Amino acid sequence: MTTQEEQTRAGLRFPAGFAWGAATSAYQIEGAVAEDGRGASIWDTFTRTPGRILGGHHADVAIDHYHRYREDVALMARLGLSAYRFSVSWPRIQPGGSGPVNSKGLDFYKRLTDELRRHDIDPWLTLYHWDLPQELEDAGGWPNRDTAYRFAEYAAAVHEALKDHVHTFSTVNEPWCAAFLGYASGEHAPGRREPENAIRGAHHLNLAHGLAVQAMNARRVGGCVNLYAITPATGSERDLDAARRIDGLQNRFFLDALLMGRYPEDVLADLSMELDFIEPGDMRTIGAPIDVLLVNYYSRFTVSGEPGGRASAAAAPTDSASPWVGSEHVSFVSGGRPVTAMGWEIDEGGLVEILTRVAREYPPIPMVISENGAAFDDVLVDGRVHDPKRQAYVRAHLAACRQAIDLGVPLEGYFAWSLMDNFEWAWGYGKRFGLVRVDFETQERLLKDSALWYAEIIRQNRRHEPTDS
Ligand code: FCB
């Protein structure tokens, strides 16, 4: 499918200036964990804890991006990307999470962003993609309010050093995951199972976002949320209540905070805990104006509040508790759709649903899809990876983006997750999300069929850029 008419038919023609991107994160790709003064992060510790990562994998080398970034930017250029979303490793910049900056750490991101700009690729910088300096965790981690202030200092330092290299800064990637997988379910680092502290952590992650927005005073700043479409399993009162609760914790807790400076009342009531850690003025800080909302979207949840509900296939890979603080009774059931290798149901309609919802229910805000993609069990055959399912996934979700634009959503870009196969957190190297295959032994990179296809879609769109509307 290459001609312009075919693209139009498939709903894959986008307005001029639409950002064509791919995304990664520091810990998942960089490796070089002990180089140039980098300190330890909670993921270094977590991956060393027996039983926390499938296969006992760690990311000491990961896909060696720290040394191969030039080659990786060249791959991005081959794809024709106009934007690249990456994250900065906090412990490279401040090895212990506070105090003077480590210039060697910053230099890496200067080299990377220079290289991107040389190829006309717009760097989208994320400040925090879950690799908290271990020293800050030792001091209490995200449940400790002080971490939010440390984050604002770190953000200001990164902004100061890179503001001439980077146009768009974003704060915390998926605060839901950082708080609830890190401190309630224990699936992610630091692996604590302390429900109330997860809520504290969530609030302090939001506060960190707001403080950083203020401290950076950046030209263009964004916040990032992972949103799910959510359906009740049936029309029963319990199922409807389950849907309200999960939507509340997953979506509204963060959207309401970032975009309206408040928490939803019903969610606070579900928590039934003392909320004295929300201090006067916090909500105003958290609601500090931003320029763009980064939305990560993967799937739809179908939920039930009926007793004895059975969890769906998309359960955690390792022994962990419920992340759903205050709503632990809710079960996640199959919605009957095809799933990816993660067991995540494929539902591009959910993407249209969440985008139109944000546009309808919140103050106007430009958005980008900052992550979207799928893991499948790729097979290498004669030097090729035929991955029609990934291609179909991206195609369907891009068409959903186009549909959302047609419905009036101010959507300005799409970042595929991920540029390359990488370290998928508790799943280790077992799940491949990349458009680019990586041989984890030799570090060889290879464009999968989906990458070649994506490159063609980008090429067609960018070719017509100047005259598009
Ligand atoms: C998101 C994370 C990203 C990656 C994808 C699959 O939740 O932000 O790092 O793990 O899921």
UniProtKB/TrEMBL annotation:
Domain of life the protein comes from: Bacteria
Protein name according to UniProt: Beta-glucosidase
Residues that coordinate or bind substrate: 28, 129, 173, 298, 417, 424-425
Enzyme Commission (EC) number: 3.2.1.21
One annotated GO biological process: cellulose catabolic process
Protein's organism: Nonomuraea terrae
Catalytic activity: Hydrolysis of terminal, non-reducing beta-D-glucosyl residues with release of beta-D-glucose
Recorded GO MF terms: beta-glucosidase activity
InterPro entries: GH (IPR017853), GH_1_N_CS (IPR033132), Glyco_hydro_1 (IPR001360), Glyco_hydro_1_AS (IPR018120), Glyco_hydro_1_beta-glucosidase (IPR017736)
Entry annotation: catalytic residues: 174, 371
Oxidoreductase found in the keyword field: no
Keywords: Carbohydrate metabolism, Cellulose degradation, Glycosidase, Hydrolase, Polysaccharide degradation
UniProt keyword Cell membrane present: no
